[in-house]
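ok so dumb question maybe but i'm new to this and my supervisor (M.) told me to 'just get the structure for YegS/Rv2252/BmrU family lipid kinase' and walked off. so i did the thing. is this what she meant?? sequence i used:
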Amino acid sequence: MESKNKLLLVANPISGNSGNETLLKQLELEVAHRNLVLLKYETTGNESDDKKNILKYVITHHIRHILVMGGDGTIKFVAETIYNQDISIGILPAGSANGLASNLKLTDDVETQIQIALGAHSIAMDLLSINGHICLHIADVGINAELIENFENSPLRGKLGYALQTIPTLITSEYPYHFKIQTNNETLEKEGILIAIANAKQFGTGAMINPHGKLDDGVFEVVIFKKLDVVDIFKTLNQNSEMDSDFMEFRSTTKAVITSKKSISLQIDGEFIGKTTKIEASILQRKLKIMVPKDF
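this is what came out, is it supposed to look like this??
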């Protein structure tokens, strides 16, 4: 069988819900209809072993297209494993957090997701390097990262788990923070509740935090949230709302250094990384070939 007829499916077995079984069955039917061979690998949670095993599949079977069934964490892991190679990725959103899928305008319809993942339309997507970690769409320091940290330390998963951590986070947070920000063109000092480093437009929740975001434009935005304002936060859920400059402001750049005297929580693509006083971010231009809808 020619290598171009072989696909590798990387699936996170603990990601998402029971609907993943239906997704897999429909995928297998479509792959058979196209006379393709589907190889499958389930992640184990041991990143070192998983990376070696995925690369072994890639080399042994000359894989040029990988399907990822999981959430942002699984996609990020696969991207970190293969982004320097000539391999495309098709996403089958199946996680509790599907922020990248939202930014790629993937629908909830399973059949459409499969057609896009196996399709012919792709972009060469930028990635971010943040303190040595790969970032697909959005990272931030401040109160949102604190919320994610508290959520990861709580026993309850899902949106309810996030909601229940909101009040404790607001009570214990030491915001506002004082930041020093260096970009390509300027150095500035700002006070705020969080700073986002955004390659994309929105969080997985649908909150629009970066209207300027484009996944393949060669730059990213530093988004400074100046204050905690409930009205303006709800405005981010309406993609047509104008953001008040007293609430947030933007800087487009290819690199940034953000420092704080206090150690602050950092999250990348919905995963708590740790506390830090310094964030170094830079763009990795057009590093990941990813499948998108025809009208993206």
